[in-house]
């Protein structure tokens, strides 16, 4: 009996604050999970997307938003994103990913912003932090330098964990390919060809809980999945 009461109290703690609409989806802009404090799901994004099969709500809620309010985030919050990123799988656990960041109040900030293309500068300058994502193309194995064929793939896995952690915290975590590689290499002091600049990321606080930005859809599964034999027409 005692344990049943405890379980009931825990249930109420987790779910008592969730308002559900007629469709069974939380009516508030964020569905919080009381077990884990800061984490929640963007219900607005979840309502605007249709899945073919059940998946975790955090995946469905991830969006590459642009609107940020320019307010700082704590360094510990940013480090939590890197903490998430380090737990990605990789080839023989080589962990090829590398990150270089600039907080908006740091002397590195302007160089990072200026390395972006003008279209990205307009909105990314309101971020709390900008991050350069790199991968190490090689590993030293038994004294020999060897190419890591999966360095880009593994770094992508690391970045996605960062994105999901930021999404769960209600942050904007937006990847960018629009930047000048030579400028960013100079900005971070990169001189070795052993590393590939993969992307830049803008991290910041949302302007509002409910964003007016477009909720993007994805291709149906049969557009990119086939059984047994690769079917090129499926991917067109």
TrEMBL record:
Domain of life, source organism: Eukaryota
Residue stretches in coiled coil: none
Pfam families, per the entry: Nitroreductase (PF00881)
Swiss-Prot/TrEMBL keywords: Oxidoreductase
InterPro entries on file: Nitroreductase, Nitroreductase-like
GO molecular function ontology, one term from the record: iodotyrosine deiodinase activity
UniProt similarity note: Belongs to the nitroreductase family.
PANTHER family to which the protein is assigned, alphabetical: NAD(P)H NITROREDUCTASE YDGI-RELATED, NADH DEHYDROGENASE_NAD(P)H NITROREDUCTASE XCC3605-RELATED
Protein name: Uncharacterized protein LOC113792522
Species of the source: Dermatophagoides pteronyssinus (European house dust mite)
